[in-house]
Design a protein that fits this description.
The chain has two domains: about 50 residues, Arc Repressor Mutant, subunit A (Orthogonal Bundle); about 140 residues, Orthogonal Bundle (Tetracycline Repressor, domain 2), CATH 1.10.357. By secondary structure, it is mainly alpha-helical. α1 crosses α2, α6 packs antiparallel against α7 and α8 packs across α9. About 80% of the residues lie in helices and about 0% in strands.
């Protein structure tokens, strides 16, 4: 029984990778399930067995994208460590992920796909909000430990992430600027961290 299961997993992964390639090359609206099936080297029926619709397939790609964001940002709050030693790696991981070509390509597709569909946009924003929970949880723990001034954790998390995105995400998405190099990532992360701590650290 394990061999067919492995084959099924391989086909599912092939479909996802083919969909990523097609969405990046042609955008959401133009990409068809037929083309995804051909690129994946599977039948159209196999594609529909795994994903009932193009929207479901796209949602799975976004889920994987946001899951990777969560994994790279996952830092458990430590009461015995300085805040800056915990916060900086989280912010750097966020910027490094934003500099990934595959991430930027998919983000462009995702944003383009939502422009003409408010429902899809709302769904995406909800997914993004869920996946950025790691920093919010960390801030909440630091608040509970009495090391930050009273603030809404979601607001503070969004605030600091906005600082990162204004350098490492929106210019790349909207103006086609190159991803930030390692030195610039470090400078942006350190600056955002200092602004956050200057405002909220007790």
């Amino acid at each position: 029984m394990t061999v067919p299961q492995r084959l099924t997993d391989r086909k599912r992964e092939a479909i996802i990778q083919a969909a990523i390639a097609e969405f990046r090359a042609n955008g959401f609206e133009v990409t068809s399930m037929d083309k995804i099936a051909a690129t994946a080297g599977v039948s159209k029926r196999t594609v529909y067995n795994h994903f009932p619709s193009k929207e479901e397939l796209f949602a799975e790609i976004l889920n994987q994208l946001w899951a990777r964001i969560t994994d790279e940002q996952a830092v458990t709050y430590r009461a015995d460590q300085p805040l800056r030693e915990q916060l900086l790696p989280m912010l750097l991981a966020k910027l490094q992920m934003m500099a990934d070509d595959n991430f930027l390509g998919l983000a462009r597709v995702a944003i383009a796909a939502t422009i003409h569909s408010p429902e899809r946009a709302q769904d995406m924003v909800a997914r993004m909000g869920e996946r950025e929970e790691g920093l919010t949880v960390w801030i909440r723990a630091a608040l509970a430990d009495g090391r930050l001034k009273t603030v809404n954790a979601e607001f503070a998390a969004q605030q600091v992430q906005g600082l990162l995105k204004s350098f490492g995400f929106w210019p790349q998405i909207s103006m086609g600027l190159p991803p930030l190099d390692a030195d610039t990532q470090k400078a942006v992360a350190e600056s955002a961290m200092e602004m956050f701590l200057a405002r909220y650290q007790l």
